[in-house]
Amino acid sequence: MLSYIARRLLHAIPLLVGVSVIGFGLMHLAPGGPLAVYTLNPTITSQDIDRIRVALGLDQPLHLQYLGWAGGMLTGSWGHTFFGGRPVLTVILERVPATLLLMGSALSLAIVLGLAIGILGAVRRYSLFDYLATTGALVALSFPTFWFGLMAIFLFAVELRWLPTGGMFELGEEGNPLDLLRHLVLPTLVLALVITATWSRYARSSFLEVMHQDYMRTARAKGLRRHEILFRHAFPNAVKPLIALLGVELPFLFSGALVTETIFGWPGMGRLFVDALAMKEYPILMGMVMFTAVFVIVGNLLADVAIALIDPRVRLQ
Length: 317
Description:
Layout: H1 2-29, H2 36-39, H3 46-55, H4 62-74, H5 88-123, H6 128-142, H7 145-159, H8 177-211, H9 214-221, H10 226-238, H11 240-264, H12 269-278, H13 282-310
Helix pairs in contact: 1-13, 5-6, 5-8, 5-11, 5-13, 6-8, 7-8, 7-11, 8-10, 8-11, 9-10, 11-12, 11-13, 12-13
């Protein structure tokens, strides 16, 4: 197991290098390049821009700029923001807890609801519930996340006034867990909606496939009770593809969090990325690209390890 993890981490190095090269190149190909925030400012003269270019090392060849930036990433020096001059790593880490709270809440809710709906759909195949669940999943997957977010704000915050329209706390209520919970409900529901639809469809298909296996017929022939068959024999085998799906879903969870945080004003990494993009804060954008890449790679690795731990027949070589 340890050798497998070590090999996977070694294989991730070329992937991270590729992501960094592409991201670094795109930042230089963007209009105005890394100095766009300065070149678009009419109060800054060309002489000032030349001095800034030299100070940031942008007068060097592109490959030397990349090596200097990559070396800083490895040593924890991710650069400084254009506005305020704060360390990029510090700015990103300040937003990580809020994003993890939102993503963790949405993912937990989606897994519970998705599994429940999928299992019921498989057990009651072609029933009214199954048709309704299938229709609801198709509707959830057909509409964009921002539309659900706007409709949720209009219904629950504007019309019914049950929940706040956005943010993480009311003014003066910072640190109040109940106020945090009220602000967390809407973005969690919106972010979990599409993931729940995906999980319910995969769970239904996986359980239907497992329930028609020979060992399931043997368990029924032994006279085992229905819930024992479902949870002792079907569940451990049907859940393996869903764990693999969890690793694949991480990038989509990040993209959904980006849209959701922007709509609800949630102060997480998604909101930071959108604000940095609007302000052309390229050091933050590059830092977030690499941070997200590492998170997705580690998430996929943990999903593979979890499959091996759940099913002893799986041996990671």
